[in-house]
Amino acid sequence: MPKFEDVECAVCSSKNRFEVSKKGQHNIPLNLVLCKACGLGYLNPRWNAESYFDFYSNEYDSYYRPALISEINTKDPENNPIIHRLRINNLLPTDFTNVLDIGSGAGENILNVQKLFPNANLFAIEPSEESQKNLTDNGIKVISTDANSDWEKGNEGKYSLIILRHVLEHFLNPVEVLKKIQASLSNDGLLYIAVPNNLRPTKNLESKWFRVVHTYYFNKYSLTNILHKSGLESIIMKEGDQLNQHELFTIVKRSNKDLDLDISSNNYEKQKQVFMDGLKNDKKPLAILKSKLIKVLGKS
């Protein structure tokens, strides 16, 4: 049984919150709240670090990526979302020196980087033992199993690209990890982040969108706040594109100046409205029937 802990808002430290839902995907209970001061979504109370690490090491793949290694696609690196978005925004350099993929899974993204930049030194942080084996078998050096470890020590200013694709929403201490990343980026290094966009969620919030492994629920306001608090700033931030309409992605650099936080109850009201409207629509008879059909067809 997982053990639980109470936490405060990672942006503004407020304990004033609104309870959104206690239901999550795979019928795993959760406690999703919104900070009334700044609008950040997060789980509270949530599993503690030990409980999460055990889940990621032993159970996560069976729930969320059962065919992970067999589904890796490196046939056309130019179609990889990270490479594609860097290129169309004129941010893809002619070469990378050192690349780190945090929460890499079995390595699809970094293996695409490897194919396009064969001379780059490639590194990963990944808790799954099966994924670690696939990474090392393909020449990727696993420097840690935990992003909360002291992996940044000795790696200051090293990485020309760090990847966080659908990983930031899983962290227990996003600011702490982002500060490690800030210290590890080279002067002209880039950080790529993609997270679910909680201002544009898909339908079936409680059976699909809300997940016990998603400890944070970002939108463009809260993601900007988290970055600024960590000494990072966006070069570009977009709410979806032709690759994924429900995704928020940003390309980030180190900042040499103090960055303001946008602590506004308006941000809270916007996010609350989206979630409440979504939950209301999910309870309509047609939506319920569609959800049941999807479950039945999925089991057949």
What does this structure look like?
There is one protein chain. Helix content is 33%, strand content 24%. It has 300 residues and is an alpha/beta fold. It starts with a strand and ends with a helix.
Task: Break the fold down into its secondary structure elements and pairings.
Layout: E1 4-5, E2 17-21, E3 32-35, E4 41-43, E5 46-47, H1 49-58, H2 60-64, H3 81-88, E6 98-102, H4 108-116, E7 121-125, H5 129-137, E8 141-144, E9 159-165, H6 174-184, E10 185-196, H7 205-209, E11 216-217, H8 220-229, E12 232-241, E13 244-254, H9 265-282, H10 285-299
**Oligomer classification:** single chain
Strand order of the largest sheet: 8-7-6-9-10-13-12
Strand tally, please? 13
Q: Report the principal-axis shape.
A: globular
> What do the pLDDT scores average to?
92
> How much of the sequence is in beta strands?
15-25%
Please compute the radius of gyration using only Cα atoms: 19 Å
Biggest β-sheet description: 7 strands, mixed
Q: Structural class of the helix and strand makeup? A: alpha/beta
Order of helix and strand elements from N to C terminus: EEEEEHHHEHEHEEHEHEHEEHH
> How far is the N terminus from the C terminus?
30 Å
**How many H/I helices?**
10
Helix percent reads 25-40%
Model regions low in confidence, pLDDT < 50 over at least 5 residues:
none
Put the structure in a nutshell.
With 300 residues, the chain is of the alpha/beta class. The chain has ten helices and 13 strands. The chain is globular, with a radius of gyration of 19 Å.
